[in-house]
Amino acid sequence: ELNIGLKWPNDIYVNGSVKIGGLNKFDPQSINNAGCALNVGNSSPTTCINDLREFEHYKKKLPHLSYEKTFAIIFNEIEKVLNKVQTGDFDFLYNSYYKIVDKEGTEKKAKVTGIDEYGFLMVQLENGAVETVHPDGNSFDMLKGLILPKNF
């Protein structure tokens, strides 16, 4: 399996350091549009999912992904999420722990508890403290993780 993760608020990474896509949401008044870019087959400027087949760790595990297969996988997962949301089941969104990296580079575990009034993630740390997670402020730096405010 691929180690794919999201860096709040919009980057998609493999192995924590290889950016393969991004997310976007546009909300003009009450209409919502969401977009997702996933690099399946373009090796430049960074890497793509099909390039990962060349990594030793994945060599025998990954078949070549076509665009059609990729879309089918994504839309099937979106359908599962929409079905849960339509029945009012939001708990699945909050019941996972995520890796948070502070400014010193120390990894911490945190549970997502919600989104604050400004759209930032709210997380509960292992010690019980609730903090707001801010993006690193540099969407072009593909190697930085999430950071918490200085008072963390």
TrEMBL record:
Pfam families: BPL_C (PF02237). InterPro entries: aa-tRNA-synth_II/BPL/LPL (IPR045864), BPL_C (IPR003142), BPL_LPL_catalytic (IPR004143). It comes from the Eukaryota. SUPFAM superfamilies: Class II aaRS and biotin synthetases (SSF55681). GO terms for molecular function: biotin--[biotin carboxyl-carrier protein] ligase activity. One of its GO terms (cellular component) is cytoplasm. Residues 1-86 form the BPL/LPL catalytic domain. This is BPL/LPL catalytic domain-containing protein. It comes from Megaselia scalaris.
